[in-house]
Design goal:
By secondary structure, this protein is α+β, with helices and mostly antiparallel strands. The protein has two domains: 145 residues, Hotdog Thioesterase (Thiol Ester Dehydrase, Chain A, Roll), CATH 3.10.129; 156 residues, Hotdog Thioesterase (Thiol Ester Dehydrase, Chain A, Roll), CATH 3.10.129. Helix content is 23%, strand content 36%. It has seven helices and twelve strands. Strands 1, 2, 3, 4, 5, 6, 7, 8, 9, 10, 11 and 12 form a twelve-stranded antiparallel β-sheet that branches. A hairpin with a 5-residue loop joins β5 and β6. α1 packs antiparallel against α5. The longest helix is centred in the first third of the chain and has 18 residues.
């Protein structure tokens, strides 16, 4: 089996760290997105191809597992390989590690297509790129497999009216600013994750204000995410995010987020996540207190799916 190839190397910067004291999830996504661009180059689909053909390798779905938190100054390396390849779609594995400790920080399993930049429609992947993808074929390690989420096929794209009927909470309203866009003028993977990350407190703020142990510093942490990118929002588009709780366990709970184009009411991104309440001093997940469980269950919408 061929070895995966290095597609990113960098480090965690102070401005990438959030109020929980570790690298925010949006920067995991940013580094993985850069890794995808480097991987595309290794397949012959890099910048020259993009400029000549007007098409780019683009993620359609992405399953992420966050395995080790990373702190400022930590070195970061990402390797990539191919799990499967057809003329229509590639399934890729990225593995983020900390070279100082050899710990796996996160894994990303992406389904990617070669998409026309102007229309968003898929194109056949060239034979030479498929041959290059086959040369770096890898197997899915156990730590990258889904744990709290089931990777069912995505549902039909929901409409804003459906989210309102289900009682999902509006957790974000805003515009796609140019600063949130990639080189093609579309909402970037980092910004998409950032919108969701920034929106979550509008659903869960009550969990921190109703503690039974007032001296305990409690936050939250994501363990797993899955995205379905349905349409690429452009600079100037207006966005609305609706969120709901799908399941509450003893330590973990599942959230579902639907992101809509506010002008058309059409879903542009849907996402689901597994999260935990997190002791900020002991750096570990805790059992959800009964008071917080009751509040979470108030937002239960069990029928939510990706």
């Amino acid at each position: 089996m061929p070895a995966p190839i290095e597609i990113y190397r960098g480090s965690v910067q102070a401005w990438e760290v959030d109020q929980m004291g570790h690298m925010n999830v949006q920067f995991y996504m940013e580094k993985a997105d850069v890794g995808l661009q480097v991987f595309a180059h290794r397949l012959g689909l890099g910048p020259e191809f993009v400029r000549r053909e007007g098409a780019r390798l683009t993620a359609r779905t992405c399953h992420v597992r966050f395995l080790r938190e990373q702190h400022p100054g930590a070195p970061v390396r990402i390797t990539g390989g191919t799990l499967s390849a057809t003329r229509d779609r590639l399934q890729l594995l990225q593995e983020m590690t900390n070279p100082a400790t050899d710990d796996v920080a996160a894994t990303f399993v992406m389904e990617v297509e070669l998409c026309d930049i102007a229309t968003g429609k898929p194109r056949p992947i060239p034979d030479a790129a498929l041959q290059a993808a086959a040369s770096v074929e890898v197997e899915l390690p156990a730590h990258a497999a889904p744990r709290g989420l089931e990777l069912r096929p995505p549902r039909r794209a929901p409409m804003l009216s459906e989210a309102e009927q289900l009682g999902m909470v509006r957790t974000y309203t805003g515009a796609v600013l140019p600063s949130l866009c990639n080189a093609d003028g579309h909402l970037s993977a980092r910004a998409c994750m950032g919108v969701i990350s920034d929106a979550v407190p509008n659903l869960l703020h009550h969990l921190r204000s109703d503690r039974t142990e007032v001296k305990r510093r409690i936050g939250g942490a994501a363990l797993e995410y899955r995205f379905c990118y349905r349409r690429a929002p452009q600079a100037g588009d207006l966005l609305a995010l609706h969120s709901g709780v799908r399941e509450v366990g003893s330590k973990a709970y599942q959230l579902c987020h639907w992101m809509f184009d506010l002008s058309t009411g059409e879903a542009v991104v849907t996402a689901e996540a597994v999260a935990v309440m997190f002791d900020l001093d002991e750096r570990r997940a805790i059992t959800i207190p009964d008071s917080a469980r009751q509040k979470l269950e108030h937002f239960l919408v069990p029928e939510l799916t990706l």
